[in-house]
Amino acid sequence: MGLNSKIKSLIFAGCSILLVVALAGFATSRQNKKVCKTVTVKIDNEYNNYFLGEKEVRDLLTREGERKLEGLANDNIDLKNLEKRIEADKFVKNAEVFRGLDGNIHVTVKQNRPIARIIRPNQDVYIDAEGTILPLSERYTARVIPITKSALLESTDKGFFQDSAGQSYLSLLQFIESDQFWKAQLAQMHIDGKGKVSFLPQVGEHTIEFGKPMEIEDKFKKLMIFYKKVLPVTGWDKYKRVNIEYDDQIICE
Predict the structure, then answer these.
(1) The CATH homologous superfamily of the domain defined by 114-252
(2) Are 160 and 167 in contact (CB under 8 A)?
(3) CA 20 from chain center: how many Å?
(4) Which of 133, 120, 125 is nearest to 161 (CA)?
(5) pLDDT tens-digit profile of 114-132?
(6) Does domain 39-111 have CATH number 1.10.3680?
(7) Is 55 helix (H, G, I), strand (E, B) or coil?
(8) Angle formed by the axes of helices 79-87 and 54-62, to 10°?
(9) Where are the beta strands (DSSP E) in the chain?
(10) CA 118, 91, 109 angle in degrees (round to 5)?
(11) Per its UniProt entry, which superkingdom is the organism in (predicted)?
């Protein structure tokens, strides 16, 4: 290829790039001038959580109706700021706000999923699957296992379920949440002053003494054997305590 051909190729490539940039800028300019006519809100209720409704999301978007989006040009709408405003709500796991080709705004919201409820003297709170503390909701009550604790135990607020000591308790709650049988059967969880866990079941008069939240899966396997092979023979009300704390044994009294 001669020198002139190379120069012509470079000029053509440069012009093509400038044309693409100009067209993109023109399209962006036109898009920014479009007016938002409608706002569509979609809330993910994958886990049947209903802490937030469309009204609550719209209130977050518009600051309780003070700044409506309908009627605004796109260049006056800060999408990232709207996302941050929605995600500031404790019940929101993440949010996405984007505009369609028609200039209208679309909002998708994924809610946090509580897995337990901590019973406190002043006000109860929820805990989600990541160990984050969530407030109660006036709109919806989640059906999750309640937790009581000894006054001698350190506070379970803030980052307890996320530090090295509390992580094992969170793992226990995650296991229960993921197992349909134990999620339905365990009515209440208690943590004593030594950090040992016990459960009250939905069916039966016994207390399940679980011990420290260690070897979680093995302990529940032992308990399942007890439920399948012992209780059907002796009856559900024969024992008052069932201890599965120790290796390779179940203590029943």
Answers:
(1) Cell division protein FtsQ/DivIB (3.40.50.11690)
(2) no
(3) 42
(4) 133
(5) 999 999 888 899 999 888 8
(6) no
(7) helix
(8) 130
(9) 39-44, 92-99, 105-111, 114-118, 125-128, 133-134, 145-149, 186-191, 197-201, 207-211, 241-243, 251-252
(10) 150
(11) Bacteria
> Whose structure tokens read 């365990």?
186
Indicate the residue type of 142.
A
Position 144, amino acid = V
Residues in the chain: 253
**Amino acid code (one letter) for 50:** Y
* Residues of each domain in the chain carrying CATH 3.10.20: 39-111
Q: What are the per-10-residue average pLDDT scores of the chain (253 residues)?
A: 58 56 46 79 85 90 82 87 92 91 91 91 88 88 91 65 83 94 95 93 92 94 91 86 89 88
pTM: 0.77
Place of tokens 């208690």: 190
pLDDT of residue 76: 84
Q: Where in the chain is the domain with CATH 3.40.50.11690?
A: 114-252
Site of tokens 């209780």: 231
For residue 86, give Cα distances in angstroms to 28, 41, 60, 160.
26, 12, 6, 26
